Amino acid sequence: MEKAIKKSDVLIEALPFIKRFYGKAVIIKHGGSTIGDRKLTRGILEDIVFMSYAGMKPVLVHGGGPAINAAMKKLGKAPHFVNGQRVTDRDTMHVVDRALSEVNRWLVAEIKKLGGKSYGLSGRDSGLITAKKIKSSIDLGFVGEASKIGTTLLDRLLDANIIPVVSPVGRGTDGEIYNINADSSAAKIAGALKAEKFFVLTNVRGVLKNPKDPDSLFNTLKSGDVRRLIRKGIVASGMIPKVSACLLALKGGVKKSHIVSAALPHALLLEIFTKEGIGTEIIR
Fold first, then answer.
1. Fewest CB within a 10 Å sphere: which of 32, 127, 170, 243?
2. Where do the domains of the chain lie?
3. How far is residue 110 from each of residues 21, 115, 116, 168, 255, measured CA to CA in Å?
4. What is the C-alpha separation between 109 and 240, in angstroms, rounded?
């Protein structure tokens, strides 16, 4: 009986949040090492399907580093990175595109198994992501950034209560396809859709005051706080692109950005539908 009461308390706490976010777009970026864990990813997809049934409009933007590395290994190609960017020659670009397409198909199939409606998209199709080649002192090859997001197809899918699953590959005005960072692609899509929330799933609880202490979590940060933490070196290494994507989404008009751990069961639902949350929210 006591257990049932506690469950009802959870539902009652969630009710005002369900009302508030009904009909609102929410963009989730999932990638990195955690996307290679299929059991963990299925749990994340359960949350996304729940959000859809609760009347929200989720969009999943995914990476696929482990799948890309595995595909390259089969071909005898060693991955090469410069400042965190994968050097991508033409052959590697084809490997990246194929590997991301396979991840995309699997994610769509899993969402359908869970009872959700879903449709897979590559950013290079239907004018979804227009890419611009990244210029640097070392030529990275076919590595780009999103210069423009076309939302026509996304809007149609969301209006039909279908969950779009987006692979972060873009097409340049030169007709070439480019490998684009999934964090920044997701942030750009969130801004273009004027999403209510933008989520980056990662392998830590959120932004930490002390990276060695998982309990030193910042629950809420303002954009200025984030920039200050970067200058001080408290936010460093792999967390910089995550928080940078959050700031980019806010700049694009998103209400709130969130960084949460992909490893915590139902982290998305706990961050959205509870007062305390479970990760770090970043606001303007």
1. 127
2. 2-283
3. 24, 9, 9, 19, 29
4. 32
CA 203 → CA 110, 161, 206, 219, 260, distances in Å? 21, 29, 8, 16, 8
Within 13 Å and on the Cβ side, how many CA atoms surround 235?
A: 22
CB neighbours (10 Å) of residue 24? Answer: 17
Transcribe 8-24 into DSSP letters. HHHHHHHHHHHHHHTT-
| pTM recorded for the entire structure | 0.94
- Candidate CATH numbers 3.40.50.10490, 3.40.718.10, 1.10.8.100, 3.40.1160.10; the one for domain 2-283: 3.40.1160.10
Two structure tokens written together for 255: 């209400």
Orientation of helix 239-251 relative to helix 182-192, angle to 10° = 10
Cα→Cα distances 125→73, 133, 167, 277, Å: 27, 17, 10, 36
